[in-house]
């Protein structure tokens, strides 16, 4: 027997109220970006919801961390470049661009990402000088017609006056490093990941760039942090391009499991670091329906190249407890510990004995897969992009199309090069003495993605129910 209309109206009203609340929760937790074949994109979320997921920006606000470099002067493009805008969603991204690009002849394009000072002009010059030097030296892997682009991820506060009313700018401190959404223009939903996707799409245009073969994303320091994370979520590149992602001297990485290579309690402890596994450092609060293992399986198949200065050991950069748990105070040790970690996860046959940290292969989950990443260690280089990328080894990281031609750089006495087997291998390995002692549990990360997926499932169920009740009335 059909219920009275008034009863059904009350039920429907209650249901729709619940549905609205759940929709708000889902919108606050879900930020679609990344591979379009895996994650449906939407611009329905407000930017204030998008910026809430990064543990570093939250900690900076809580601790009152000094905001850093500030510049409100008119931007000046370096010689050989011009400052232009590229469309990203409904807004635009400022970028320093080769002034007179050889679009029809270029075989390579380099997207050079600045560090925490947001000095894209200086990084454009660094990449230009390294390219010019390589071409002058007759280095055949370097394309004399290569195009260089250095995006500018402005701070809305610290660079006020430098960006236009339509150009994207981010929250502090440097939320763009974690792939967060811009806070300017008001209501913007475009993330720094979206900006890089837009650049990839731009250079995939075979009519405009008929001979382009290689698209190279390069980041150093803060840009290296962005690159570490973008490589995980980037759209699947155009089939006509060989795309590589280069992360130089990043302060941290995003761990796929709850394991960490630092267990020296005088350095940092998980108990005293509540955000230790929150996004940008782990997958908690990372808003995507994919699991950490699915992200791992995706990224290990990509050409990702890590490069670190052997003397990048100063206690500078990110010194929050979340980063300290990844290998101590030195960027070098954190990066070497990361290399050990991902090789163990993928079960490669790389020689990683002597790496910082005492994570063991047996203690980590078995996520066997073919790792296409490389690690290059530059002897004598500090936290300096010119020293790292301008070295002979850094040159191979930038320009060589095949990962097998990338130099490994420094290696300790007794290091053994991996021999390919019928099982999994990695492109190269590195070992180092010293660094923080470590170990970790083998439990995998409790990802925010799981709760988000549950929210979406419940939402779909309620939508179906609401439709049925409406039809019944």
Condensed summary:
By secondary structure, this protein is of the alpha/beta class. It has twelve helices and ten strands. Residues 429-448 are annotated as: Disordered.
Structure description:
With 473 residues, the protein is an alpha/beta fold. It has helices spanning 5-29, 47-50, 55-63, 120-136, 192-203, 222-233, 292-299, 321-324, 331-346, 385-389, 392-399, 448-472, and strands at 81-88, 91-98, 108-113, 147-151, 154-155, 169-170, 214-220, 242-248, 303-309, 374-378. Helix 1 (5-29) runs antiparallel to helix 12. 49% of the residues are buried. The model is unreliable at 1-51, 421-425 and 427-473 (pLDDT under 50).
Features:
about 475 residues, eight-stranded mixed sheet, globular, disordered N terminus, signal, Transmembrane protein
CATH class: Alpha Beta
Largest sheet at a glance? 8 strands, mixed
The CATH superfamily title = Alpha/Beta hydrolase fold, catalytic domain
Instruction: State the share of residues found in helices, binned by percent.
Output: 25-40%
Can you count the helices?
12
- Looking at the structure, the CATH topology is Rossmann fold
Query: What is the annotated CATH architecture?
Result: 3-Layer(aba) Sandwich
Query: H/E element string?
Result: HHHEEEHEEEHEHEHEHHEHHH
Total number of beta strands = 10
Instruction: Round the Cα radius of gyration to an integer and report it.
Output: 23 Å
Q: Low-confidence parts, pLDDT < 50 over ≥5 residues?
A: 1-51, 421-425, 427-473
Spatial strand arrangement across the major sheet: 1-2-4-3-7-8-9-10
- Nearest-integer average pLDDT: 82
Q: Assembly state here?
A: single chain
End-to-end CA span: 13 Å
Shape: globular
InterPro entries: AB_hydrolase_fold (IPR029058)
Keywords: Signal
Region (Disordered): 429-448
Protein name: Transmembrane protein
């Amino acid at each position: 027997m059909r219920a009275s209309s008034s009863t059904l109206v009350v039920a429907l009203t209650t249901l729709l109220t619940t549905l609205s609340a759940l929709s708000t929760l889902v919108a606050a937790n879900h930020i679609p970006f990344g591979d379009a074949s895996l994650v449906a994109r939407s611009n329905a979320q407000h930017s204030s919801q998008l910026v809430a997921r990064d543990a570093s920006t939250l900690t900076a606000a809580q601790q009152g961390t000094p905001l850093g470099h500030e510049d409100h002067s008119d931007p000046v493009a370096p010689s050989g470049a011009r400052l232009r805008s590229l469309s990203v969603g409904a807004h635009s991204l400022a970028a320093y661009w080769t002034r007179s690009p050889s679009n029809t002849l270029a075989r390579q394009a380099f997207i050079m990402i600045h560090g925490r000072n947001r000095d894209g002009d200086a990084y454009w010059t660094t990449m230009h000088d390294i390219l010019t030097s390589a071409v002058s030296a007759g280095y055949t892997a370097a394309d004399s017609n290569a195009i260089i682009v250095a995006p500018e991820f402005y701070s809305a506060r610290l660079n006020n006056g430098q960006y236009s009313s339509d150009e994207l700018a981010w929250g502090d401190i440097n939320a763009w490093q974690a792939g967060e959404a811009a806070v300017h223009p008001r209501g913007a939903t475009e993330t720094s990941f979206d900006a890089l996707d837009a650049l990839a799409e731009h250079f995939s245009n075979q009519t405009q760039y008929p001979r382009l073969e290689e698209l190279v994303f390069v980041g150093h320091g803060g840009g290296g942090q962005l690159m570490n994370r973008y490589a995980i979520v980037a759209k699947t590149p155009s089939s006509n391009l060989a795309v590589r992602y280069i992360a130089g001297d990043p302060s941290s990485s995003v761990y796929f499991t709850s394991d960490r290579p630092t267990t020296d309690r005088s350095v940092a402890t998980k108990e005293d670091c509540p955000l230790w596994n929150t996004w940008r450092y782990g997958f908690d609060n990372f808003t995507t329906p994919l699991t950490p293992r699915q992200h791992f399986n995706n990224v290990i198949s990509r050409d990702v190249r890590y490069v670190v200065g052997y003397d990048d050991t100063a206690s500078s950069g990110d010194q929050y407890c979340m980063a300290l748990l990844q290998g101590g105070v030195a960027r070098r040790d954190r990066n070497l510990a990361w290399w050990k970690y991902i090789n163990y996860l993928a079960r490669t046959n790389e020689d990683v004995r002597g790496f910082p940290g005492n994570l063991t292969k047996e203690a980590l989950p078995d996520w066997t897969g073919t790792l296409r990443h490389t690690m290059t260690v530059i002897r004598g280089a500090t936290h300096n992009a010119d020293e790292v990328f301008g070295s002979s080894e850094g040159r191979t990281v930038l320009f060589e199309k095949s990962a097998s031609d990338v130099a490994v750089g420094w290696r300790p006495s007794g290091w053994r090069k991996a021999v390919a087997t019928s099982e999994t291998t990695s492109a190269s390995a590195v070992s180092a003495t010293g660094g923080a002692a470590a170990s970790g549990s083998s439990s995998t990360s409790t990802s925010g993605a799981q709760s988000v997926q549950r929210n979406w499932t419940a939402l779909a169920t309620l939508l179906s129910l609401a439709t049925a009740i409406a039809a019944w009335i």
